[in-house]
Amino acid sequence: MASWAEGSTFACKTKPNGDQYNRAINICHTLPSSSPFIQVEIPSFKTVITSNTDMQATCLVHTYFDATITWLIDGKAVTKTATREKNATHIISNLSVSSTQWENMKNVTCKAEHKCFTSAEKTINIAGCPVNTPLVEIRRSLTDLPKRDSAVFECDIKQLSSCNLFIALEVNRGEILEKKHYNFAEGSVAKLSISSQFIVPQKYWMKDQTFTCKVIQGSSKTFHSNSISNIFVDPSMELLLVPSKGSESQTLSCSGWSFNPHIKWLSESQERSPTSTNISMSVDGRVRVTSQLVIDQSEWKKGNNFTCEVSDRSLNTSITKTISLCSETPSSSQLVGVYVQGPLPQLTESKEHVTITCLLVGPNLSDFSITWRVGGSKIPESYGVLTNLSVSHNNGTETRQSFLKVLAVDWDAHTNISCEGKHPCSNHGNEDHISKSRGNIRNVTNLSKLHVPLVVTVFLWFSSFCVFQDFLEPTVKIIQPTASELSKSDILTLVCLVSEYFPANIIVHWEEDGRTLASSHYVNSPPWKYSGSSSYSMSSRLNISKTEATRSTYSCVVKQESSKAPVKDNITDVFASVIYSQPSVYLFQGSNELVCLVFGFSPVSINITWFQNGGTEPLNYNTSEPHRGPDGKFSVKSHLYLSQEIFLPGVVFTCRVIHANTTLSRNISKPDTMKYCNLFDNIVHADVNEDTAEESWNVAFTLTGFFIIATIYGIIVTLFKTKP
Predict the structure, then answer these.
(1) H-helix or E-strand containing 704?
(2) What residues form the membrane-spanning segments (predicted)?
(3) Least packed by Cβ within 10 Å: which of 109, 221, 353, 705?
(4) Cα 615 to Cα 427: distance, rounded to the nearest angstrom
(5) First-to-final CA distance of the chain
(6) DSSP per-residue codes, 588-620
(7) What is the pLDDT of residues 485-515, one digit of tens each?
(8) Bridge-partner residues for 340, per DSSP?
(9) With DSSP H G I counted as helix, E B as strand and the rest as coil, what are the percentages for the chain, rounded to 5?
(10) How many Å apart are CA 198 and CA 204, to the nearest integer?
(11) How far apart are CA 222 and CA 216, in angstroms?
(12) How far apart are CA 429 and CA 339, in angstroms?
């Protein structure tokens, strides 16, 4: 029977009537001999990936014949025995392969062979379709944010091939937390994209955990994403004071970072509801929560403590920070410069009240309280106290003024008046006090430790120590402008220097021909002290015009509080030195020299040249620098030094003066008489002596007379012009 099934031929021989007949037969003649239909079934992609057992391939051959079944892996016959089952119409063969070998296989073939038909085979591609290299990323899912009590990661894969896909979330590059399988029809789309979410169990919410997306496509193509690590960490936080200058409210901002942060506000152990909350997530998956609490400025100014608590349920940890006015105000900002200024002397006359000014200099002056005391008694704010708002300056400091009206009788009685600036976070304030001067300086306390830049120029500052000193009358001097200053423009600044006076309270103003000028015409500086000096100095600057003040007399007038008569200095004909005035020229003869005196000229530029007999030979002469007189005019002298060899009778010496467009010349020569003749012989070098004593005295008396006349003339002119 087995031979029949294998296709063996059987023959029958007979000899009826003496004739021999042969007939042969086999199974091929009894059944259809066409090639069989073969089906091969292999495990699914999901089974291959998820199962740890051997993989099994099944071959189903549709045939009546007892065909031989052969398995081939990657074109090579399998030596191991496959199972085989047969019925009347089918042969079933099963091939078992280890999962490791299966992952490395490219194809498997089932081959059927029999004598009755041509061999047939069926090959299945195990490697699957061609696989591109996809882009694999892992991130925390945005849908996780509203829940705030779960951990969801998202694997995002792009540029996938149209092949079966397996995605897994891997922890610490080893343990698979969850697996997902996707089937795609081969060739359906050139490149695919897919996102898959994975929920992380709470037992993995620990520090130092690393999460990675693992992608397998095809038989053995494995890809990994970048890893997210250290995402479960202790929370960190930042508590800030939001600038709110000029507002009636104060905003506090608290930010917390962790995997799942929650913020809670507390004030004096009472929970406060936040004004606003904002949630965002960074690339590394950590969440940032920012919460703002808006409170009244009055509540903030009280110095109450406000606490922000940031907790994370994933690790069951929390941290807190506390903020208050005092915590945000450094010690240096709790100090303030306090300067008290008494009334101006002219404002104390015939007044029932006088105004005392207190100036505070420092940062954030709105935080400071101002307290006035008169004779040691505290003055309520409702009693004659006016305090302005703070004024900001470019150097970061602020100034604030407070004014107190006191009775003039109290001021005249030398009552002590003090002003204190105090920060609510400081145990001590800064104070300055003043009283009407008795001839000694007031005491200024609590200023030696203060380092505040001075930004105000309208107040008089005082030293931080206490000394006693008598009144000092000021020295007043108007600084004479230089010729270059006078010639630069038609506007000139006169500077009045007031020095060596005490106390600091003085009044400075300017007068023109006896008329008081408005304060808009001049600027007074604050008083200052030189190092080691106990007296004060200050300056005042007045702008005048050349066209409007040609012959005017200007006075700098200084008055002290307790002085009866002012101290002043005058200047007349300020622009006289730059207004043209023709010079006067006189030529004098002295002993062995000639003197050319030029005076009464302006402007200062002048040229003096000496000539002998009209020649151009250089002569030995010297010209002094021009000197400015009280009337603003200039004078100058030029000396020509002579020897007896050149100062001969008949020789003419000329002094030529060039000033502006004017040229003046003065000549002098020695008379041609034997009385004044000096004889000498160049060959024998004979010395001739002449008595010149009488001549020298005459020249000296003449020069002295001219200088006395010029001086008297200048004094008379000055007195006439300054006469009121």
Answers:
(1) helix 693-722
(2) 697-720
(3) 705
(4) 91
(5) 164
(6) EEETTEEEEEEEEEBSS--EEEEEETT------
(7) 777 777 888 999 999 988 888 889 999 999 9
(8) 358
(9) 15, 45, 40
(10) 13
(11) 4
(12) 13
pLDDT band (50, 70, 90) for residue 420: very high
Structural domains of the chain, ranges and CATH numbers in brackets? 37-125 (2.60.40.10), 135-229 (2.60.40.10), 236-323 (2.60.40.10), 331-434 (2.60.40.10), 475-577 (2.60.40.10), 580-711 (2.60.40.10)
Position 589 scores a pLDDT of 87
Q: Which residue has the tokens 């703070």?
A: 390
Token code pair at residue 442:
């007031």
Are the C-beta atoms of residues 105 and 16 closer than 8 Å to each other?
no
Predicted pLDDT at 403 = 94
Cα–Cα dist 690/696, whole Å: 12
* Cα Rg of the chain, angstroms: 58
Q: Is the dihedral of CA 258, 264, 268, 273 positive or negative?
A: positive
Q: What pLDDT sits at residue 350?
A: 57
What pTM, to 2 d.p., does this model score? Answer: 0.48
- DSSP assignment, residue 99? H
* 52 Cβ neighbours under 8 A, 6+ residues apart: 99
Query: pLDDT tens, 608-636?
Result: 999 888 777 767 889 999 988 877 788 99
Could you identify the residue written with the tokens 């500086």?
Answer: 525
Strands 607-612 and 652-659: antiparallel
Q: How crowded is residue 444: how many other Cβ atoms within 10 Å of its Cβ?
A: 21
Q: With beta carbons less than 8 A apart as the criterion, state whether 161 and 130 touch.
A: yes
d(CA 497, CA 569): 10
Question: Distances in Å between the alpha carbon of 685 and those of 270, 680, 682, 690?
Answer: 122, 7, 5, 16
pLDDT at 549: 60
Task: Report the C-alpha gap between 79 and 61 in whole angstroms.
Answer: 20
Distance CA 394, CA 398 (A): 9
Count of residues making up the chain: 724
- Contact (Cβ atoms closer than 8 angstroms) between residue 169 and residue 177: yes
